[in-house]
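For the sake of transparency, this paper describes our internal protein records without simplification. The tokens are whole numbers drawn from a learned vocabulary of local backbone shapes. One such record is reproduced below, unchanged from the form in which we store it.

. . .
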Amino acid sequence: MTKKSAATSERTPQRARGSRRPPLIWSALALAVLAASGILVLLLNRSAASETRSSFGWATHTLEMEDKLHAALAALGNAESAQRGFLLSRDTVYLTPSRQAGDTARRLLASLRTLTADNAGQQRRLDLLDRLVVARLGLLGSGVALMQAGQRDSLDRLIRSGHGRALMDSIHATVRSAVANEDTLLARRQVAGEGALSRRLRAEELIVGIALLAMGLAALVWVRLRRAERLMTMCAWSKAIEFEGEWMSVEEYMNRRFGIMITHGISPTELARLETEMDGAPILASATRGVTARGA
């Protein structure tokens, strides 16, 4: 074998090994894509879940706020009703529910202040509402005290003054403003919740897309590996075959790869060519035929 043939034969294993690199590269790429996509999907899913929980939490907060506002308003109305019952009947049995209703209204306002600690606008409304409720309860107490003291004229003037009605109108207006503000916040939070759900759905779609991509890459790698298994590297000069990192003759390759033993002979075409080249040398031709016969 010439130097050129030997050099080429030494470079051939490198090319053979290089021919196996693309499937390995594709495999590594598939694993990298799966790992990166898994991390991305996990982050998106956690973010969407967090936003969804936050949105529903704020919606619950808004509904609780509105319920307590209406409950405080109802308690104040109960206090008024009980006070009117006392003024009409002078029966002290009405004083206890009137006082209890007032306490309930104040307790609800205190809890509302805790709920809206992060909302400066609602805190200002509650400040105003607290002053109005205290004033209204104080006016109810004044009416009871005047009735108990027998000062009917002063009681009549207090009732006709319209202060109680004006205070209740202001209280209703303040409650409506607070409820409207909560409704606005609820609408914004619902939009945020829908956005979180939408992002979560997109994350799930991304999971499906990445899974399909990974399956496609895996199928491509499998096909490439199958093709690589069907390829055989043969030296262009010596006709040696590379198998499992070793170079060997065709006979040895067939034996190791398929368990086939090979004998040698000369085909009729080659025999005719040799006879022609020998230019009628009968002795050598007879010897050649003998070798061919023994090989058969």
In short: The CA atoms of residues 121 and 181 lie 9 Å apart.
